[in-house]
């Protein structure tokens, strides 16, 4: 009985395998049919679109379109010329030589530059001498390194003001 049950089990497993293979084949065929149907619909719609485009374009002539585009371009050019003519000032004897105007502008700019340079005060040169050897520093040098001025704070403020004016002038 156990042997019969084992044979029956093997037979059922073989049948199950065959049924599974058949189902896989049927599923593959169903997907192929769906894809074919989709492709057919797409081609049919593309045909409709081609016919519609052909119907729309049968009344159009490329030469007529080129002529129309040239006419539009010419009219745009005419409109631009009219706009330019209207927007340009009429010359009523007040024409100036461009070179003379540029020379006068450069002269004014140079005068302004010279005036600004006269008002610039440069900071004074430090009165202390540098140490004779790099290793020997004085107390004044240490305070300088700690950003504490050896000279009066008023002098430093004046120098900072000068630097600000120079920066403002330069920009």
Automatic annotation (TrEMBL):
The keyword Membrane applies. The keyword NAD does not apply. It is a peripheral membrane protein. InterPro entries: Snf7_fam. GO terms for biological process: late endosome to vacuole transport via multivesicular body sorting pathway; protein transport; vesicle budding from membrane. Keywords: Coiled coil, Cytoplasm, Endosome, Membrane, Protein transport, Transport. Pfam families: Snf7 (PF03357). It is found in: Cytoplasm, Cytosol; Late endosome membrane. GO terms for cellular component: cytoplasmic side of plasma membrane; cytosol; ESCRT III complex; late endosome membrane; multivesicular body. Belongs to the SNF7 family. This is Charged multivesicular body protein 4c. It comes from Nipponia nippon. The lineage of its organism: Eukaryota, Metazoa, Chordata, Craniata, Vertebrata.
């Amino acid at each position: 009985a156990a042997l019969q049950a084992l044979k029956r089990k093997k037979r059922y497993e073989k049948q199950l395998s065959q049924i599974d293979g058949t189902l896989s084949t049927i599923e593959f065929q169903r997907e192929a049919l769906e894809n074919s149907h989709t492709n057919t619909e797409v081609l049919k719609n593309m045909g409709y679109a081609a016919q519609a485009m052909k119907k729309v374009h049968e009344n159009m002539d490329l030469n007529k379109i080129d002529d129309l585009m040239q006419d539009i371009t010419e009219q745009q050019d005419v409109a631009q010329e009219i706009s330019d003519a209207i927007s340009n000032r009429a010359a009523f004897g007040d024409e100036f030589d461009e070179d003379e105007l540029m020379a006068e502008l450069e002269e004014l700019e140079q005068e302004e530059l010279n005036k600004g340079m006269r008002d610039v005060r440069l900071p004074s040169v430090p009165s202390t001498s540098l140490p004779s050897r790099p290793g020997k520093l004085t107390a004044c040098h240490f305070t300088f390194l700690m950003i504490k001025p050896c000279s009066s704070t008023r002098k430093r403020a004046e120098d900072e003001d000068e630097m600000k004016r120079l920066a403002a002038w330069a920009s």
